[in-house]
Amino acid sequence: MTLWAAGASASCSNAETTVEMNACAAQDYSTADGELNKVYQQVLKHYADDPVFIDKLKKAQRLWLAYRDAHLASIYPEANASEVYGSSNPMCQSQILARMTRQRTAELQAFLERPEGDVCGYIQP
């Protein structure tokens, strides 16, 4: 299985054209983003009684989104990406976004899994 299909649906395992691969990678990223949003909402709900934490988490998430976008722009700095980087560029960008999003989801999930009395306050995913 290719990297782009790692989290994609079974129908994507047979993608052969650039259009199909771009669509499948975009679908994979969309799925990862949906999971991120689900876990983020779970964390907000879990810590609803801690407004200081919620405020800082929201700030961190906004900054992570800015970092994610800036990081992607640093990899593909040209504004006309498809012309400069080719027709597979949407797939490549979606793969990067999906990977980064899954990593961030794991970081947020750790807030839901930290044991009572954890003196460090955070479990590394």
Automatic annotation (TrEMBL):
<dbReference type="InterPro" id="IPR009739">
    <property type="entry name" value="LprI-like_N"/>
</dbReference>
<feature type="domain" description="Lysozyme inhibitor LprI-like N-terminal">
    <location>
        <begin position="11"/>
        <end position="108"/>
    </location>
</feature>
<protein>
    <recommendedName>
        <fullName>Lysozyme inhibitor LprI-like N-terminal domain-containing protein</fullName>
    </recommendedName>
</protein>
<dbReference type="Pfam" id="PF07007">
    <property type="entry name" value="LprI"/>
</dbReference>
